[in-house]
Fold each of these.
Amino acid sequence: MEVAVDRSLCEANEVCIGFAPAAFELDDDEELRIVHPSVPESEVERVSQAIAACPKNALFTVE
């Protein structure tokens, strides 16, 4: 699974960080940073929950 963010939609409200803190973080400019675009198997469920919970639908999987 690979995850990406649409920066034009993302408001960096940290909902995704709440679900998957090992996968997402805010950088020094308060913009969302994906720690590991290729999601480790151990984080797939958490990242999937974060994608579903994103209030702006800014997160998506890349095929």
Note: The chain has a mean pLDDT of 96.
Amino acid sequence: MFNRLKMTVAALALTAGTAFAAQDSITIGMVLEPPNLDPTAGAAAAIDEVVYANVFEGLTRFGPDGSVNPALAESWDISDDGLTYTFHLHDGVKFHDGTDMNADDVVFSLNRARAEDSTNAQKALFAGIESVTAVDPLTVEVKLSAPNGSFPFNMAWGDAVIVGEESIADEATNPVGTGPFKFANWVQGDRVELVRNDAYWGDAPALATATFKFISDPNAAFAAMMAGDVDAFPNFPAPETLEQFKSDPRFKVIIGSTEGETILSTNNKSGALADVRVREAIAHAINRQEIIDGAMFGYGTPIGTHFAPHNPAYVDLTGLSAYDPELSRKLLAEAGQEGLKLRLMLPPPTYARRGGEIIASQLRAVGIETEISNLEWAQWIEQVFKGKDFDLTIVSHTEPADINIYARPDYYFQYDSPEFRALMDQLNLATNPAKRAAIQGAAEMLIAKDYVNGYLFQLAKTGVANAKIQGLWENSPTQANDLTGVSWTD
């Protein structure tokens, strides 16, 4: 009897221990698989969704409320003329390969990002840097060619993380950062696995392991959550099922905002689309609410320009492109474009595939036919983003406060406006919040009146998680699944 009791107690202890151990691991669902894992050499948001703040860190970082906070730099000083930033680095920081992270790595990272042959997707973030100097191992001096009040903000982007020269050659497939988690494994087509970095310089995360599971199909995502194969899906692709999750005590639904301006991106140099009348006709053919209801089941905020509605500098310009199919037909006739046919390239996200079908129907109603091509993410990057071989596409720009992309004539939608570039130059020089807001408002108005793109809606953050998980971001001020504050409750 006594032996049986001991065996029972031992079995219970083993079961309890196993259950307890399971609570320091998490499986996160993601719609898209990243094409690589180097955020300094790729444009895909899915890269940052895995590695931002988890594997890689920058001088500064975004907090869950969108604030810019210290990261590898514990503090920084700005010269009176605004041209020199002196960053003071944390002591004792090591890369995951055991090498020290010091001022030389910051010099290497920033010079690499701004080099002539740089493949950084946000190279413009570094354009104003004149020089980067290691004053001593823990001090870096960055000189700018002109004052830039956004510089600490720029350094918080995933594209500005600090990397080591020793590991950079393999960063895309074997990322080595300074973050609280280390890369462990990548089963392509299925998952990426991270493990806790026990040598982390900062506060240790509660989680010991994290798996990012890639599930693009909405039905499969729903099934994975219901079965417990996935613990959380921060950007859940099946909003039509959220009510079911809300009524199930095993789960919690997390609704927030993102920086994701979802747009009908338009190639401004492709045939008839070079005519502003055609672009305006497309804008007036779009019924935003019908797209939000049909593709996102009501989750989304209409926008009329490339700016987040929750930003204090946002200007509501939806009236400039209000749904007006009669005006669309009139503008197309004036442009001599009856019978226009355009290529609509759709990447995998639900908002794009479902939204694309609705927009195709809306355009058909005013006389514009579309040839739809469903592309995988890698195809979209190569053909649309890099190759500019498209007429229309739908994508959500999730980078924070990224209206400055319209100042880049070689950007994939190929908008070329000296007036807009002049506004961005003024914005970079401005430090007064009211003045910056006025300049941003003028920039919002300019691209809205030029009908550069079809502005659809601000992407809502519709997440689902196990009810025992705490610390997931409600909003997405940047494209990240930051696990540094995530834990399980009892």
Note: The mean pLDDT is 93.
Amino acid sequence: MTTAIVHACPECEESVQIGDSVRLNEILECAGCRIELEIIALSPVVLALAPEVEEDWGE
């Protein structure tokens, strides 16, 4: 039996459905605002805005 956890998007408050097999630091996308969210804790599940990918310019 699979269960889903529902959390509110920290950006737009839209419901984000999270499966029971998620992993720490997994990236999800909000269906409402299309922003990327990162799972930063598992017990309880905590969502945060995913960090933006930055270029390192070979440094």
Note: Residues 20 and 34 are 21 Å apart (CA to CA).
Amino acid sequence: MYRFEVPGMKCGGCAKKVERAVKAKDGSAAFSADLENRCVSVTSFVSQADVAAAIQDAGYPNHVAA
């Protein structure tokens, strides 16, 4: 499972956009968003770097959460 901080994700619409970007890379990925803490958790068979790039390409700068 990968966790990313996504500071620009501020609403449910943002979370859906991030989820669509992740699912475009891996349709079977498990995705959950925590809007309060502005982070997402992703379980995927694609690499962490590819998931991060998909989120970035959707317009949301991000970094791996500690």
Note: The chain has a mean pLDDT of 96.
